[in-house]
Sequence to fold (314 residues):
Amino acid sequence: MSTIRISEDLKNLLYSLPEIDVESLLESYRKPMRQSIRVNTLKAKEEDIVSMLREKGVELEKIPWTRYGYWVVNNVNVASMLEHVLGLVYIQGAISMAPVEVLSPKPGELVLDLCAAPGSKTTQIAQILQGEGVIVANDVNAKRIRALSSNVQRCGIINCIITQADGRKFPLWAKSFFDKVLVDAPCTSLGIVSKDWGAAKNWSFRASERLSKLQLSLAISGFDCLKASGTMVYATCTLSPQENEWVIEHLIMSRPNARLESIKLEGLKMNKGLLEWQHKKFNPEVERCVRVYPYEHEAEGFFIVKITKEGEGS
Ligand SMILES: C[S@@+](CC[C@H](N)C(=O)[O-])C[C@H]1O[C@@H](n2cnc3c(N)ncnc32)[C@H](O)[C@@H]1O
Fold:
């Protein structure tokens, strides 16, 4: 098996995490993740797409925690198939489908995806909205917005507005406006190292701390864009408490009307948010956050938290 290089800082981080199985994690980093897809019911019926793929030799198994999600059990490269080009399927990590299930958008709602490119979750939200309601899909990066735009088009979505802005400024024009907000924040990517070994080789406490300030501003901005009683999901694909529990602790400190909700998803192994890390104690509510480790499903690692906005004001 190939050898993966991990930075000294990352070694120190991993051994500081109370519950993680470091050996299993490092082994998962060396292996490719299981392939998974979402069938796009905006283009055709789920059963028709599934039988089309099965006829072409793709072996599929339902993913229990998400609608329309399937594991590809055999070694077929779905990315090179016509069904992918036509937008009948979207290649998306199995755990990456969980945050949108937690957000649970409903047809007719106004949804903001604050950090949207390249659009896995935007297209998933659009599928659940079934053409009713509007998604504002925002990202700061022009190059990544091109990929977002092409994915939105490929999936046949007509109710999505794409914006290019720094997400931290969104409350200037959309304060208390949205029913649902997703903040899938930029992060140090320790949940997807098997796709990008550089994330492990270059990982540093300093970079993680710097990023956590941006993440907190984005989380606060997303929260301020929520209507009263609205729901926000904050997610990262990293394991560092600095970018996860620390951000949420500071969000609830600066926005006392933010409530953390418990998360239930069938069949997904979920670990509670950490209450303590490196002598820092977090608010007990932070336990409601969910951590998923890459070795638990041979898929990505994720941190997910569901937040509701109580009453008026922000
Ligand atoms: C984890 S990725 C989002 C993945 C996307 N949600 C998906 O499921 O396909 C984080 C994104 O945040 C964007 N980003 C970074 N800083 C931002 C900012 N200040 N405002 C808005 N987006 C930002 C990055 O360009 C990147 O596309």
